[in-house]
Specification:
Elements: H1 4-31, H2 33-40, H3 48-51, H4 58-77
Amino acid sequence: MATAATKAPLTGRVVEMAAIFMIGDGLLGLTQTARHTDLWKERALGAERTVRPFVGRPGRRRLYALVQIGAGLALAARQRG
């Protein structure tokens, strides 16, 4: 059975992975806007609904990318080693 001490590293890793995903997805959305949006706009296992507001609106996607990157960095910064 896991104790609080063994759960903490796992939780930290999950949070770190979420931050990495947010930062990476944000960077791709910022630098490769059209390609990245096109990849997820159809037959994407449910992600189509999430991407729909960005199709044909690169400025909106870039703004969201900056928010993603900032949120990912803030989430990672809250982690304690």
